[in-house]
Amino acid sequence: MHSERASWGLRLAAWGGLVFLHFPILIIFLYAFNTEDAAFSFPPKGFTLKWFSVAFARQDVLDAIGLSLQIACLATLIAMILGTLAAAALYRRDFFGKEGISLMLILPIALPGIVTGLALLAAFKSLGIEPGVLTIVIGHATFCVVIVYNNVIARLRRTSHSLIEASMDLGADGWQTFRYIILPNLGSALLAGGMLAFALSFDEIIVTTFTAGHERTLPLWLLNQLSRPRDVPVTNVVAMLVMLVTMLPILGAYYLTRGGEGVAGSGK
Amino acid sequence: MQLALDTRTAAVGGPLRRLSSLLYRKPNLYLSLLLVPPLLWFGAIYLGSLLALLWQGFYTFDDFTMAVTPELTLANLGALFQPANYDIILRTLGMAVAVSLAAGLLAFPIAYYMARYTRGKTKAFFYIAVMLPMWASYIVKAYAWTLLLAKGGVAQWFVDHLGLAPLLQLVLGIPGIGGSTLSTSHLGRFLVFVYIWLPFMILPIQASLERLPPNLLQASADLGARPAQTFRQVILPLSIPGIAAGSIFTFSLTLGDFIVPQLVGPPGYFIGSMVYAQQGAIGNLPMAAAFTLVPIVLIAIYLSIVKRLGAFDAL
């Protein structure tokens, strides 16, 4: 069946679709090196690296990068712990409310960001919590859990439970089993989930708008920049960096989780 | 053998070993220990917040003092049906439907080609090529489009060099779609939405086509169906769950967005921008809360429709 050739129209549509998906991203990479101050003209007149040094000399840029990194690390850590616990609890046994729990984990990314954002804001306001770094982290961790959960539970389902029983039978305690059997099996899936959660948190803007208070993460900084045409070259450089930070984890996660069918003990 | 026994008896005495044996013998205890942290987090923080939000939707906002008082009222919900707010809802809903349809049309050939005509390295290449733009920064993608669509920008360069300027003017002249320039038109906003959510449509369709058994297609051909008939009567119906699953993302994500409407397109609120404006500049959290009910209800209705199409099996 697969030996037949695709028609020209289909091939054009498929490859054309890929070009459409990547063209705006290439534009961002192109304009980061643009020599002009107002970088709207196309094609660019020339290329330079000078805007990189300008951007990295700006304290507001560095502050925003630092804040976003800090928030993404904290949110990822919380999401990895909670997501792994939830996956370990849900992957094998059936119990009352299991469906409800998995629905609840998905809800923060299934509902529009404005709902999650406004809900958190309403709760923080009624509890008298001042929005800041902590509230941003809470928001991000909440929707990152499901990313880790999905990666870990997929791996757990492919790992044979008899490996764990065998380890316990052979005299390993819970920690040893976790350290030598579960963790090596889970490791790459956990890392992949963590990388994706990091990328998601680093880039999140809609929930963050509501929970940030006076803090300015990198995406919020970028959004604010868009109403300042004078800063276009610096904005372009930062835009390219944000693009890289969010795209590289997906490549890493792909290489970590591909070929997972060959996980030890999967042929149970 | 003796050594093995010795280490084993030693291990039995260890507190970790005793704990793991206890947890193994009492699976319910083990389960609840695992579940308590995520349940606490989601129950207290997330569900608690959602309830707080719904509750706030019934609070009273005083237009003169600009203050919120905890007197319960249905006025906010009633206000959703005022013509001005009704317009916002219809505008957003229309855009979400249009974006979902266009994303489906664009995504299908890509997904179809990926599933049926690529293998090995090419398939992996396509997969990554769709995943990368999907995960690449949302705000930067939106920003890229403001660069593309701007006056003197890339889109205009292409339009001018391909001699399409009169055609563009004609399209921009259509009421309800056009606008004065590409970056302030409904068309421009629609393009950005379709671009940003397209990968979310491609992957579910590709997954559903990937599951299609090849012998079904052979059977159809053996029974005398032309390729077009096979496509219409076998492939398309079996890919409906994937299309429906993808449309959940495009529909829900468009419905709640307020960044793209702010950056590209004509003035006029979307549901998201209305929520943002109400809680921010105006300080009317109750009205904002009532407005968030709209996407929740619309998505619930939408989910109940696509569930019948089998979308949940294709997620």
The CATH superfamily of the largest domain in chain B appears as: MetI-like
Structural class of chain A: mainly alpha
What is the first-to-last residue Cα distance of chain A?
A: 31 Å
Subunit organisation of the chains: heterodimer
Low-confidence stretches of chain A: 260-268
Can you walk through the features of this model?
The complex is a heterodimer of chains A (268) and B (315). With 268 residues, chain A is mostly helical. Helix content of chain A is 73%, strand content 0%. Chain A has helices spanning 8-31, 50-56, 59-90, 98-110, 113-127, 133-158, 161-169, 174-203, 206-211, 218-225, 232-257. Chain A is globular and about 70 Å long. Chain A starts with 7 loop residues before the first helix and ends in an 11-residue tail after the last helix. Helix content of chain B is 76%, strand content 2%. In chain B, strands 1-2 form a two-stranded antiparallel sheet. The model of chain B is unreliable at 1-11 (pLDDT under 50). Classes of the chains: A mainly alpha (268), B mainly alpha (315). Chains A and B meet through helix 1, helix 3, helix 4, helix 5 and helix 6 of A and helix 1, helix 2, helix 3, helix 5 and helix 6 of B.
